[in-house]
Task: structure prediction
Amino acid sequence: MMETSRRERLRAAVSLEIKQVAHQQITAQGISALTLRSIAKQMGFTPQAIYRYFENRDALISELIIDAYNDFAQSIQKASAEVPADAYGERLLSMLLAYRQWAIAHPVDFALIFGAAIPEQHVVQRITQEASLQVPALLGSVLFAAWRQGFLQPLPEYQPIPAEIEALLEDSRIALQSAMDLSDLPVELLHTMFLIWSRLHGLIMLEIGERFQIIKEPEALYRFEVLSILKAMGVSITKR
Result:
């Protein structure tokens, strides 16, 4: 048993080192330049040795993405836990600000999750799908709890929703059902969830992509957008 445990610890340590080297290479050269051979060369391994730990490049990239999703979710969870459970406005504010903070602090991981062009993308997405739902589930749980308690309403300016868009949103309800209970939610609230994500995520992507150079204080703009969205939903915030 002791020998097996030591072997497992060694395998875990080598796997971690492989991922660290892969992350370094992605940071320096981009994901398109990443190969198992280049990792093996940097680590002093034979190329064949890497395959003992990762079946192929997709498996390694999938592990990196899952690690990023897990760390991302932990930061959002921490932001939520710092605010009383029934202070819905403050919790949403804290979590949405943490969303940007994590992205700015981890631009390579954020791009790996959302922006990188990955060969065999459909394979990687299938492997990482469960991990990818963690952050939406955390944010959605607070958003939907606030609605159920009468503390917010869907964004009014986009109603009524056309039938064809409603059908698309119902498809998304099915896709997200494994991560959160959406059975009692009006389609307008699902639409609001996607609007919040697209508006705030878009600002972050522009900032990380250095397309916001004319904006001197992107953090202030992002915070204002968060507060504007919450205000439009009727969410009360006492501490800002």
About this structure: The CA atoms of residues 5 and 11 lie 10 Å apart. The longest helix spans residues 2-29.
